[in-house]
Amino acid sequence: MKKICITTLILILLISSFCIAGCAEKEPFELDISQMKLTFEDNFDCDSLDRSKWNYGFDVEEGKKSAPRRGGFWAQDGVIVDGGNLILRTDWREDGENGAGWYSGTAMTCRQEGQDKHLFSQKYGYFEMRCKVPFFIGGWGAFWLMPYDDFAHEHNNQTAPEHLNTGVDGTEIDVFESPFSYLGKSKNNVINHAVHYDGYKDYLKTASKVDVKVNNLYDEYHTYGFEWREDCYKFYVDGYLTWQINSDHYIDKKGKKVKHNIVSQVEEYMLLSFEVEKEDGWCGDPAKNDKSKNYDFVIDYVRVYQF
User: Fold this and answer.
1) Pairing between strand 294-306 and 125-132?
2) Does residue 77 sit in helix, strand or coil?
3) Which of 10, 56, 205, 211 lies most in the core, judged by the most C-beta atoms within 10 Å?
4) For residue 20, what are the contacts with CB-CB under 8 A and spacing of at least 6?
5) Secondary structure string (H, E, C) spanning 204-233
6) Model pTM?
């Protein structure tokens, strides 16, 4: 009897150790939203896009309602509000306004021509959306943030030394992207988080986590959250912490660790988008999709809080 008890105890300890190790990657959600101030909310309960909150967010030629974007086109009529959801639809158009190709909806809180300021932007806080992404090879749904002035120094061909390796002028923050359909629906349901800084030209740098598993990614709704504080970024999926990157982020340069202070220090606006790559793109060939189908990125809500 004594031997059985000892064996049982050892077994219990082994199981406990396994559970602790196995659950370490999933830290419970720690933010108390009830103590935060709600600064933005859209539950998409209207019958059309709320233009006081969202713009289509891309430049078009006069008289047109779509524009080239990577290997496809962004189109205003790809933005649909129905049944309490925002639907960003991607469909193949043989006779599209800009020619044959994949046309996708997108919505952003940035300003458009003729507007003095962004519809919404914020520095620090908690950002969250609930959505379901489509299984589409060669494309990806995304929830992301961009600096208030879109890396203005880069547009002016000026990169001040104090901006390099920092978030002084902002960062592109990809709360999540879903580019891995090409791996196969049954093989790997994963999304990625990413931060891009120092503009998009010669100084571009990236920190990312590309292996975040999401059960039933393409068949169910999931929440994607992002906590932005002065000293760190934290990313969440369905209430669990999936990645944290601190302001004193270190990168390797030929075996040497170099500190980059990469947390954005400016207000940023939000983007909800679906993008299609070119045939030789990094996330698969979009020609492998069924051109007779619609592919819907379905968004239940978007909410933002201030600490």
Assistant:
1) antiparallel
2) helix
3) 56
4) none
5) CEEEEEEEEECCCCCCCCEEEEEEEECCEE
6) 0.88
